[in-house]
Write a structure and sequence with these properties.
The structure is a single chain. Strand 9 and strand 10 form a beta hairpin. The strands form 2 sheets. The protein has an 8-stranded mixed beta sheet, sandwiched between helices. It has a domain of 219 residues: 3-Layer(aba) Sandwich (Rossmann fold), CATH 3.40.50. 40% of the residues are buried. 31% of the residues lie in helices and 24% in strands. The chain has 334 residues and is of the alpha/beta class.
Amino acid sequence: MEHPTYLDPETILEIRNLKTYFFLDRATVRAVDGVNLRLGRKETLGLVGESGCGKSVTALSIMRLIQSPPGKIIDGQILLRRNGQVVDLVQLDPHGPEIREIRGGEIAMVFQEPMTSLNPLYTIGSQIAEAVQLHQKVSRKEAMERALEMLRKVQIGDPERRLHEYPHQLSGGMRQRVMIALALSCNPAILIADEPTTALDVTVQAQILDLMRQLQEDFDSSIIMITHNLGVVSQMADRVAVMYLGKVVEYSDVREIFHNPLHPYTSGLLKSVPVFGRKRQLVPIEGMVPTPTEEIHGCAFAPRCPQAMKICREEQPTLKEVQPGHEVSCWLYE
């Protein structure tokens, strides 16, 4: 029998049956409800789906940043390969010294809105230097030198001046670059990017994506890219996990997902996105994502699915491999 903390040598992070619920006065929100994911070394995993599907909560669960109460990881494992050992992050105290070392040192996160993530009372340089000093035994001067080096790496103009400026003095694109510099300042093995190009114009978006690709090459990092933008996924990801109402419904390499989508939800997402150079009518997915408080007995996508069968409304399908490396949770393939 496989040891519960065994990891394939090429896997740096594996999530097994993760369940993160929020216990509110009137209902229980099943934000993440049995997610299984794998992240390989130097790989980029795209996590896609509509708003409210559990993508960001999955990321916050990995970082152990779920606010408790009301949130709690009630089941599952988050296995991280660290210093030759496999650590289950779920078993660690979310406020303890070990998770604080891992958070920022081994796994770093670029949050969705940099203006709310950066402290308005401290300069850019101070915030990066603080992160460096927290994880590396260096002097304040060395930490500031590292901060300056990181601002150069993320291609911020006049980095010597920006080092002493405050977040409100920077544009949105610059703040996003600072967040990436902050996240990568301690050479983490894994970078989680939660909607890193939201609210940026198309030109700056392309620059940020190019920058992340270059930095991944420089630092040999693995990336989890959370986005609803399938164009970003097609450019950045090696593998893609499609989420719907707290579950992964399809999982495969990026080419297979785009050229041979199996789940009706994945097909719906692709048909609702314009493609440059192709003249076709966009087909929106009918209906809305159910609320995570609803008790659903069958497939959660069944009420919106054009191919739904009787069994889809009665029993929940499981995620299974139907083609080599291609997993799907759908009764059409049972």
